[in-house]
Design a protein that fits this description.
monooxygenase, alpha/beta, 2 domains, flavoprotein, FAD/NAD(P)-binding domain, FAD
Length: 503
């Protein structure tokens, strides 16, 4: 009996993730590597990534949309700091406008990725889920794999162990898994945490709740910013959309980099500026000193932005308060603090952070051997040593994610075109001498410190250092001499298939 063996489907490029980064990567691939076959595999049933997963009240960007948006797709909405619904719509519009949506395979999760040096291909094991919830597996091969799923764990949030939690008579919610039917109208709410999620939730929930209390162990730097950019509005009135978008984008990039450098180089001055602005809004020096003056310097951790000072306005209306203390234990009626005070609550929201996960949980193998990611270095913020024909998309921590993401996608296209011109089957970065090992992300934030040891490292010098400076990166990334910095395998060096003759 003759058996027909069907080879797996093969594509030139597979992009993992149909969020902001993945859609942007597909656009660059279509426009700069014309003719390449590709697919986007998305584990969830909808595009949007982070902006589709997180549905908690008030969710919004923490960067302006002129820089968080794509350089090739002008942001046209009025608000510079946009809500999650507007961002999802923008991503969907972009995918539809450029035909990218036809390349997305939903409910498809990459559970294994194996590289073969003999064939110069990645074999991906895919887990597919149909509308009825049935799960099946199949394989797909590709010449290049590009991970654009970010570095958060979509299946798990971070919640520390709280003593006495089971005794609490109310409801406990994590923002990452917000219940659609949660009714907090007229209820007392405690939000545990002080990061971007917490400062977003507090003013949003305060509109309907009886009172919202943000409980923090220590203060975070929070800065009020305009929800609309009046200069951008004026520029958009005077100039065509594409030109206006480029000009506004440039303005905002320069301001963000300038402010970051100011905070890092003159931390004492930055502290005075931020506390002064908050005092001007709250008109309460004691409250600012107790709740909004961190021990760390601005931008040692990511700065929390609150558009139109909505967080502070909720406090001034006495709809919200901030308590700085430590949790002793949960009690039936709420939370007892170390100070002895009891905070009463009907609902507790644990905005205690995210869980980081390298490469979306994929454990890549090369020629049958697992690659230990923490032993590897990142080159140009995109490719990883030990992983041929592989790139990862990681955005900035001090600026809009998309600025770095778009540069990485353009670099990937440059590499693919370089390989075609030179007849290369595979390329991989290799360190040039001894590198001083440093964490991939250099922030003191808890969510980073908990998991960063599992990630690849950065080095102490270019091109192995993941710089947090868009101006430098934009000037150098696409001018990289790929011949000098990547080790290549010519197609001619691959084993040739053996031809058999049937008798």
């Amino acid at each position: 009996m003759n058996e027909t063996v069907v080879a797996p489907e093969h594509l030139d490029v597979v992009i993992i993730g149909a969020g902001l980064s993945g859609i942007g990567a597909a656009y660059r691939l279509q426009t700069e590597c014309r003719g390449k076959t590709y697919a986007i595999v998305e584990a969830r049933a909808a595009m949007g990534g982070t902006w589709d997963l997180f549905r908690y009240p008030g969710i919004r960007s923490d960067s302006d949309m002129f820089t968080l948006g794509y350089p090739f797709k002008p942001w046209r909405d009025a608000e510079s700091i946009a809500d999650g619904t507007s961002i999802r719509r923008y991503i969907n519009e972009t995918a539809a406008e450029f035909g990218i949506d036809r390349h997305i395979r939903y409910s498809t999760k990459v559970i294994a990725a194996d590289w073969s040096s003999e064939t110069a291909r990645w074999t991906l094991t895919l887990e597919e889920r149909d509308a009825a919830g049935n799960v099946s597996r199949r394989e797909l091969t590709c010449g290049f794999l590009y991970a654009c799923a970010g570095y958060y764990d979509y299946d798990r949030g971070y919640t520390p162990e709280f003593p006495g939690l089971s005794s609490f008579s109310g409801q406990v919610v994590h923002p990452q898994f917000w219940p659609e039917d949660l009714d907090y109208t007229g209820k007392r709410v405690i939000v545990i945490g002080s990061g971007a999620t917490a400062v977003t939730l507090v003013p949003a929930m305060a509109k309907q709740a009886e009172r919202v209390t943000m409980l923090q162990r220590s203060p975070t730097w929070i800065s009020a910013i305009p929800g609309r950019d009046k200069y951008a509005d004026k520029i958009r009135e005077l100039l065509p959309p594409n030109l206006a978008h480029r000009l506004i984008r440039t303005k905002n990039i320069l301001f963000a980099i300038g402010f970051y450098q100011y905070c890092r180089r003159r931390p004492d001055s930055a502290r005075k500026l931020l506390t002064g602005l908050t005092t001007r809004i709250l008109k309460d020096e004691k409250a600012v000193a107790e709740h909004f003056t961190p021990t760390y310097n601005p931008w040692d951790q990511r700065l929390c932005a609150v558009p139109n000072a909505d967080f502070f306005k909720a406090m001034k209306k006495d709809k919200a308060e901030v308590v700085t203390d430590h949790i002793d234990t949960f009690v039936p009626e709420g939370i007892r603090l170390k100070s002895g005070r009891i905070l009463r609550a009907d609902i507790v929201v644990t905005a205690t952070g995210l869980q980081m996960l390298p490469l979306g949980g994929i454990a890549p193998r090369v020629d049958g051997q697992p690659v230990v990611l923490s032993d590897q270095f990142v080159w140009q913020g995109a490719m990883i040593t030990g992983l041929p024909n592989f790139a990862v998309c990681v955005g900035y921590t001090n600026a809009s994610w998309t600025l770095r993401a778009d540069l990485s996608s353009r670099l990937v296209c440059k590499i693919l075109n370089h390989m075609d011109r030179r007849g290369y089957a595979a390329v991989v970065p290799k360190p040039d001498g001894n590198l001083t090992e440093q964490p991939l992300l250099d922030l003191a934030s808890g969510y980073i410190q908990r998991s960063i040891a599992e990630f690849p490292r950065q080095g102490d010098r270019h091109p192995w250092k993941v710089r947090q400076n868009y101006l430098l990166d934009s000037a150098t990334t696409l001018r990289t001499n790929l011949t000098k910095t990547l080790t290549a395998t010519p197609k001619s060096a691959l084993p040739q298939p053996t031809l058999t003759t049937a008798h």
